Amino acid sequence: xxxxxxxxxxxxxxxxxxxxxxxxxxxxxxxxxxxxxxxxxxxxxxxxxxxxxxxxxxxxxxxxxxxxxxxxxxxxxxxxxxxxxxxxxxxxxxxxxxxxxxxxxxxxxxxxxxxxxxxxxxxxxxxxxxxxxxxxxxxxxxxxxxxxxxxxxxxxxxxxxxxxxxxxxxxxxxxxxxxxxxxxxxxxxxxxxxxxxxxxxxxxxxxxxxxxxxxxxxxxxxxxxxxx
Length: 228
Hints:
Distance between the termini: 134 Å
Radius of gyration: 33 Å
Strand content: 35-45%
Largest sheet: 6 strands, antiparallel
């Protein structure tokens, strides 16, 4: 009889102890708890009071000087995607697709950007754009890169309209910008037949206190020269 009572007491104590202990969490419960903690501590997306503030915050910034390098117009190194909330006129350039931009040092009270993308013919194009820093309205833009394929109308043809093979090629606009915003734009003829490159003309621009581009000097060379 005593053995029965003692065994009953031991069984009761064991059952009581087991009932008061919390079971260990499963792997799934641990993972769920970890996910909830990470969500709670995740930083909230930044909000911007104006589209202009968003533009200045998300676009990359680069210093001057800078020089055109082969393929620059297609790779747009260092450029950032223009936020989808920005309307085309904010950067002063319309008609571009796959638009990217980068911010350059301000010129006085003028914001300066490089904007690149593809034009209506799906050809690369790069512009320098100025915006009024107070009104955030486009002021002016300057084409830094464009290309066009020379055809029969652009070349010197004989009486039968024949264009010499060595005259077939592509006109390219290349550029460089100094730290004083001296903007050198040169027109280069690139032959389709060989690796010949000919400098056709050079123009030098700068940005005035009003944010508009003005020409410092120009050497036309063969490009756009008047015929005798």
